[in-house]
Amino acid sequence: xxxxxxxxxxxxxxxxxxxPPTLTVLDWLREQRGLTGTKEGCNEGDCGACTVxxxxxxxxxxxxxALNACIQFVCMLDGAQLFTVEDLRAPDxxxxxxxxxxxxxxxxxxxxxxxxxxxxxxxxxxAPGAVADDGSIDDALAGNLCRCTGYAPIVRAMKQAxxxxxxxxxxxxxxxxxxxxxxxxxADGRGVRLAGPAGRVTIPADSDALAETLLAxxxxxxxxxxxxxxxxxxKGLRDLPHIVAIGRVPDLRTITQDAEGLRIGAAVTYQDxxxxxxxxxxxxxxxxxxxxxxxxxxxxTVCGNIANGSPIGxxxxxxxxxxxxxxxxxxxxxxxxxxxxxxxxxxxxxxAPGEFVxxxxxxxxxxxxxxxxxxxxxRFDQDISALLGAFALTLDADGVVTHARIAFGGxxxxxxxxxxxEDALRGRPWNAAALAAARAALDADFAxxxxxxxxxxxxxxxxxxxxxxLFAETAPGAHPPETRLAGRMEAADV
Amino acid sequence: MSxxxxxxxxxxxxxxxxxxxxxxxxxxxxxxxxxGASRSLRHESAAMxxxxxxxxxxxxPEPKGLLHVVPGLSTRAHARILSMDLDAVRxxxxxxxxxxxxxxxxxxxxxxxxxxxxxxxxxxxVSYYGQPIFAVVAETRAAARRAARLxxxxxxxxxxxxDIAQAxxxxxxxxxxALEMTRGDVLAGLAAAPRRLSGQVxxxxxxxxxxxxxxxxxxxxxxxxxxxxxxxQHPTETQHMVAHVLDRxxxxxxxxxxxxxxGFGGKESQANTPACLAALAAELTGRAAKMRLDRDxxxxxxxxxxxxxxxxxxxxxxxxxxxAVDMVLAxxxxxxxxxxxxxxxxxxxxxxxxxxxxxxRLRSEPLKTNTQSNxxxxxxxxxxxxxxxxxxxxxxxFATGLDPLDVRLRNVYGTGxxxxxxxxxxxxxxxxxxxxxxxxxxxxxxxxxxALRAANRDSPxxxxxxxxxxxxxxxxxxxxxxxxxxxLVHVYxxxxxxxNHGGTEMGQGLHTKMVQIAMREFGLASDRVRITATTTxxxxxxxxxxxxxxxxxxxxxxxxxxxxxxxxxxxxAAGHWNVAPDAVRFLPDGVHVGETIxxxxxxxxxxxxxxxxxxxxxxxxxxxxxxNPDTGRGRPFYYFAYGAACAEVAIDLLTGETRIERxxxxxDAGRSLNPAIDIGQIEGAFVQGAGWLxxxxxxxxxxxxxxxxxxSTYKIPACSxxxxxxxxxxxxxxxxxxxxxxxxxxxxxxxxxxxVAVLHAISxxxxxxxxxxxxxxxxAPATPETILRTAERLRPRAGG
Lengths: 494, 800
Description:
Chain A: Keywords: FAD, Flavoprotein, Iron, Metal-binding, Oxidoreductase. Chain A is of the alpha+beta class. Chain A has 18 helices and 20 strands.
């Protein structure tokens, strides 16, 4: 058992025996290390000015990730190498190709968001299979806000930088890998436990150790990616005396395909799960693309999004419609339940003290099941949904609906199924009359609230209209040429 | 690697100098040094920006013993403070002192317009939810933030007025005098017009969302000195406010700012609170103190763009000619005057946009409300006036069945005729029609409009629209005395040059342009000219860097200082080398002295030995301008900047979602000082303007609490919201007719208005719902919800 957090900043090793549990990477960099290139713009993971790059060795290769330093705790860096904007210039002072392109393309004006942008851009260059088309660039930069440039010169710079050759990180790849391997070798497989004046940090070695830790201290705060818990600290100023960091617990980081479907472990991030889920349900892949930003998805976990019980979390309604099953564990006791049963009421979930979400299983859709999911928000990228509708319809050979699972987020205090609309469709041919019946029934399914994202009128109206969109995209017969502005897909994937 | 700012890049329109009247700003003859004024040059801080080494206030090395200041904010919109228990705050770990109004040695007053209606800290009354009441001074920022939440304040709630409708219903109290502009007889004009209609347009406010929040660092010196580093667009005002609050003369207070992480008007008056509170903390503790606002506190505390409701009554004929316009422009100003007077004035100055109104009456209503005190924001009321003007155009177009572009062209200001504004200033240089026509040709507006309409017929859910809108924007502060600037230029014996001026750098490239002016005049490469932080210790009595005037005013002041030094060097060189003064010329390859080329450093060394002063201040005041608000007449603007934008959008009729698919902009920057920087300003301004009119929505709850107080709830455009097709061009061969710095035009605010094209393109797409018969009267921001509501209104009823 180790009693310190160990990671590299640049090429220097830090070994912190009294790492405060909720010390953020941003505060540590700026206030303790004097590295002020990384900026605080919002302190809630929305603006990207604090973007840093974290590299880890995974399955024998280096994986580079852009992360928001403001809502990452230092203890979560254990075993990694952290790079900041100060590390980008080559040792001889030459600008990194991304920096050079930003200068040449006039990509900075006030310059405050710029360090975050260049970090996201460098990370994008390092993503496997990264391309320079507008869509991928938009995705890579969705988590970086710029108020000056209108983004056009930054996109030009990204395209230019994608053409440039290797950088000094490539040249150092072996040294980085060796360094990280050495860190791994020092880990004894028994996890980390430390206690300091500000509180405790536990990094369990495996899920059994996690279960034991939570039994012993049911009040401990489980942190996977900290994209939610981080805000409890930076905005809520909450004391969290015991952080149990599960983000790197190996047996929770697995995605497996079995007879029941895709089983996603508690520590699997949205970014890591995205391709597998998209392969199963293309529309769900598009929803995941719009969850947070690259930096957020690099930290946020699928199960964390479920566990915290947000009424507007985008994952849960999608997975409920898909018929997902949740795996919970307390000590040695395991139980499963349909995902929708986990959400009891606002802020209340079916989870006992000491119990934790171990995994979620998303079943593969049957051959005759149509799956669609639509996210509606004021801004397409990196916005919290006003509402989200997810639909799984199974039609028989005659076009009659045999099964219907419809779930919405943003329409109630919890993500919930639209039972009335489902009943209205079941047993009917998927035609205009069925659509009208489902629209009418849906109105009785929910009593949404009005808030800063949308009014109850808008939520009700659009929820019904999403049924119309679903019909336009999936009903037998001809489909209109365009049915949506985002995540447009081939009409013929039915 | 090459020097970060010496390489020339970006588009450089061919320009020739012929046809210019002789004027003070004419450049020296001969070739322009690479990157000199009128050529593209990278931002002077670009390499520092990308390396994280550009220093903002919070990045400065912290003085020993630095304290941190965090405000305690009102949790009522309007209330009397019955009691304030701050014991728990004082007792909290790390707290050194708690500041209240009673601790202020001078005046508890920071109204930027001398109206004495804006206490720094509330005394017995709070006037909005988020008003600073006290401030915690602690050893760490974290300790101060935690302590600030421990206050126990008892309030007696008073009726709160939160918006324009409530303000009017309650009697319409104003924060500033209303302004009326009239020309002709509007009532007779309306009565005589063949056709007439009236309506109302509503547009929301806008949060600046500068990426760097408000920040200030104050350090006490000897005998009452106070140095304040402040993220301010108006160092002189910040200096005066600090002096006022601390009750001491201005000569003891120095304000300095190297750069801001964005401003957009939000750091003009709003920077004063952090600067004054930091200085107050430093004064009372004798230690340096920093106040850097958390984003949520920043958004809750500080003023924003004014939202407006404009009622219009317009008379016109069947050809779409406007004959008379009567408008009332009401603004939510918030709890104090701040800059709402000049903002609402400027809305009136732009309620004609580029159009001639034969009979006109424009009236402002600067309404007092219990919300943040709305303030300067890029355009300063001008965009709101223009949104109203363009709605009137749209109404006339739908009423007459004409293409809105044709209505625009029929009503645009003429030259020599139909050229008098509602404030009785003659428009001498109207080029709006030419710009609109050229842009319409270049982007094939008319063909695309026809094609979109045809395609819409076969698309039940997704509709597209297109619009082409102009901008005419008046350049000068309407407060005439603000139109002055100073500079201070030093030439050192080694031939290196240091430029100081009164303007501030907030990303707009002002410092780069000032460097370029000195480069061009001296024939020096960029690495020989250094800009320094803006400080009241070097250039006093400056105006805010605002009203797009930064380069116009400070550029001329820099030029003046440089020319004074050059005159002395020319006199010296002519005598020293025995040539005529006009044989001394400063060119990129050195100083030409007759047939000899003298390297600049050789000249400066020789001049020093001959005891020639190589330092000079410079000064400039804008000529020709005057404005009398009592008569509503004058020439408030030195000149106008023009441009036009064409936007094409797609909307989803089921959800109200939108995408901006293509934008073309043609903009008039005169003879641009730096085409690359100006194009950057235009691209950025467009996206910011489009954000204002689409997704950016400020929402207050019924208690007056701002619910959109962080980027999680307040959405500015993200990368994917930029138009995928985005063509921006500068108008070529279009030197300013007035004698501005190298015949350039101001470019900060005017292109913000190009976002209006998006609102009208969305409106055009919506109009397809009833076959383009009805003006959609789309209000802003056109969020998905607003668009869907408008669509529901326009959708033909079954059987209707």
